[in-house]
Design goal:
This protein is mainly α and 416 residues long. It has a domain of 106 residues. The protein is 80% helix and 0% strand.
Length: 416
């Protein structure tokens, strides 16, 4: 009778077996409900328009302050822990030093970069004309007769399209002078607000994690704290690594171009440092304008530019990047390139710059969520499914039952 009672009769209803007692169906229903919630939110997106407007105003200075926070925080921690300098005093001294550095850059570097950039823009039509003439001379060879017309047509299309876009942009700037003033105002507001946000980030940075965890239920505080630590470490490694490497790349290119006598050395170096923020592609994009300018100086200058590029790449890959541990994001190169292409297509330059750190944060969140899903559902417990669970040491859990002599032996065993 006991055996008959322990055996439960499975319900014969097909609806119960295929829908109510089927994990796959339950998961699909949950996905459908999730998509339905997204559709509902999209239908009432006007409700969230004020939130979008607020983020459009508040997010840029917070992002700028966050980037500067990850750069300055190690100095503040070093001064506070090892040199025993008060945190407020360290932050104030760093602000004064940064302000003095900015003033020095505005007085000394900005005029040089502005002058060189203006010269490049003034001479660019001449450079392009020389490129066209050189290309036509090469195409006059009989070997290129079959593709001569197509290449000439493409060069003309590129030149006309470039001129058209430049004219439309200039006319748009003058016609939308109000928008231009608004954009300049927004930039000034960001630059004026970010230092105040940065100051309080540096001042209250160590308390921020504990403050956030107060709003998390006690059951989830430990896991949430580990998640925040992982996200913070990933962002700090990437931002510090990329900006440090980009700075030294700009310095190396500027010094190298100045040594070989390349025109516009400082501007080309700054451009190389900025483009180096794009992984794998930045340095190769930065060498293109340098080679074009060198090509119209002399052939020997092209060789010297290539030598500078090879030396810079060697120093960067063998010295700078290995020393800057944070530059390693543990991402496959193919994943990085696909991510850059997709983010650039969807969000432009901002997507190219912020795509990889955003991906790193999302990857951490998804991996933690997937670990939680595996633990809760038990769908990935391979040992239990294959019957490979090790037998328990507890005699009451199964196996050979204890004999009657065992308790007696334990009673007479001497106490340690």
């Amino acid at each position: 009778m006991a055996a008959q009672k322990s055996e439960k009769k499975k319900p014969g209803s097909w609806f119960y077996q295929w829908f109510l007692n089927n994990k796959v169906t339950v998961i699909l229903i949950n996905i459908l409900l999730f998509l339905a919630v997204i559709w509902i939110f999209a239908s009432v997106s006007w409700v969230f328009q004020p939130v979008g407007d607020f983020l459009a105003v508040a997010l840029p200075p917070i992002l700028l302050a966050g980037i500067l926070f990850y750069l300055i925080e190690p100095l503040v921690e070093l001064a506070e822990r090892h040199l025993k300098i008060p945190r407020i005093l360290t932050i104030s001294l760093i602000f004064v030093a940064v302000f003095a550095l900015i003033v020095w850059g505005i007085v000394n570097l900005i005029p040089i970069i502005q002058n060189q950039t203006q010269q490049i823009l003034d001479n660019w039509p001449l450079y392009w004309k020389n490129i066209e003439n050189t290309t036509r001379k090469i195409l006059n060879d009989s070997e290129f007769a079959t593709v001569r017309d197509q290449i000439n047509q493409q060069l003309q299309n590129i030149s006309s399209e470039f001129t058209k876009q430049l004219n439309s942009s200039i006319s748009g700037w003058f016609s939308n002078i109000g928008s231009a003033v608004g954009a300049v105002t927004n930039v000034l507001l960001v630059l004026g607000t970010a230092p105040f946000i940065l100051f309080f980030m540096l001042k209250d940075g160590p308390k921020f994690k504990g403050y956030l965890l107060k709003f998390v239920p006690t059951k989830f505080r430990h896991s949430t704290g580990e998640l925040l630590t992982a996200v913070n470490l990933s962002l700090s490694n990437y931002i510090r690594g990329q900006l440090t490497v980009a700075f030294w790349v700009g310095v190396m290119f500027s010094v190298g171009y100045a040594i070989i006598g390349q025109k516009y050395a400082l501007t080309l170096g700054v451009l190389a440092g900025f483009l180096n923020l794009i992984p794998y592609l930045g340095s190769f994009l930065a060498i293109i304008p340098a080679l074009i300018i060198a090509a119209f100086t002399n052939t020997f200058m092209v060789m010297k530019v290539l030598i500078v590029f090879m030396i810079e790449q060697t120093i960067e890959s063998r010295v700078v990047s290995p020393l800057v541990v944070g530059s390693k994001m543990e991402m496959h190169p193919a994943t990085t390139l696909i991510l850059l292409l997709a983010a650039g297509k969807m969000f432009g330059l901002l997507g190219v710059l912020l795509g990889i750190p955003t991906y790193a944060v999302v990857k951490i969140l998804v991996s933690r969520l997937f670990d939680w899903f595996k633990t809760v559902t038990g769908l990935y417990d391979e040992e239990e499914q294959l019957g490979l669970v090790a037998p328990s040491d507890d005699p009451t859990a199964g196996g050979t039952p204890p004999t009657a002599e065992q308790p007696k032996q334990e009673q007479h065993s001497p106490k340690s």
